Amino acid sequence: MTPQPIPTMQIAPITLQGPGLRLEPLSLDHLDGLTAVGLDPALWRWVPSQVRTAAGMRAYVEAALKDQASGVSLPFALVLAGPGQAGPVVGSSRFGNISLRDRRLEIGWTWVAPAWQRSNVNTEAKTLLLTHAFETLGAHRVELKTDALNDKSRAAIARIGASQEGVFRRHIVTDTGRVRDTVYFSIIDSEWPDVKARLQAMRR
After folding, report:
1. Beta-strand runs (E) in the chain
2. Distance in angstroms (rounded) separating the CA atoms of residues 69 and 2
3. Which residues does the UniProt record annotate as the domain N-acetyltransferase (predicted)?
4. For FRET with 81, which of 5, 40, 101, 122 sits at 20 to 30 Å CA-CA?
5. Which of 111, 182, 114, 120 is nearest to 145 (CA)?
6. Adjacency order of strands within the sheet including 141-147
7. Rounded Cα gap, residues 89 and 78, in angstroms
8. Measured distance CA(22)–CA(16) in Å, rounded
9. pLDDT per residue as tens digits for the range 92-149
10. Tens digits of per-residue pLDDT, 76-89?
């Protein structure tokens, strides 16, 4: 019997629109907006690679677009906007570590400018990305990870219903020279309805 082709995810740049947030395919057109809100050192405390200057932000965006061209990433700019309305860029996020055949990807590289961190932006972004991953792309598994020392991020990921799977010890050497332990979480397709309900409750 001839083996049947295994269906894979079909990923392409797309705009994801929520009630007050739009996720636009990242481009160099977003560079000035990202630079204006994204150079606060506190944003990059738990990120292995630091972005502290306009040149650093350009390199960050160009690296994301290079990964997109190679098929392993799909980056977005987070834009405050309702349908038909344009607003400021307030951060960035992306699908990364994409495995089309395995129907697996990671949501990460997420940062939100300080002025909007106590708003609904992060929850809305996660809702849009997870909905697209499971309901449009047909993902089997979505991964999320964070620095083991980042208690706030760990709590936020657990709160939406992701399962902690383990700690990768001495996983990444950061720009500061610190060797980071990384905590891995995941959500699988059978868990998505419960996670979606949690996110909808958090958005109210």
Report:
1. 16-17, 21-25, 73-80, 89-99, 104-112, 141-147, 163-173, 179-188
2. 33
3. 21-186
4. 40
5. 182
6. 16-17, 21-25, 73-80, 89-99, 104-112, 141-147, 179-188, 163-173
7. 6
8. 6
9. 999 999 999 999 999 999 999 999 998 899 999 999 999 999 999 999 999 999 999 9
10. 999 998 666 678 99
pTM: 0.94
Tokens 């705009």 sit at which residue? 15
d(CA 51, CA 185): 25
Amino acid letter for position 195: V
Task: Say which amino acid occupies 182.
Answer: T
The label of the residue with tokens 């690679």 reads: 49
- Cα(151)–Cα(172) distance, integer angstroms: 18
Instruction: Please name which of 130, 129, 131, 112 lies closest in space to residue 121, comparing C-alpha atoms.
Output: 112
Residue 5 confidence (pLDDT) above 80:
no
Which sign does the torsion angle of CA 67, 143, 92, 175 carry?
negative
The encoded tokens of residue 193 equal 């309805």
Radius of gyration of the chain (CA): 17
DSSP 58-77: HHHHHHHHHHHHTTSEEEEE
Place of tokens 């332990």: 181
Report pLDDT digits (tens) over 8-38: 899 999 999 998 999 999 999 999 999 999 9
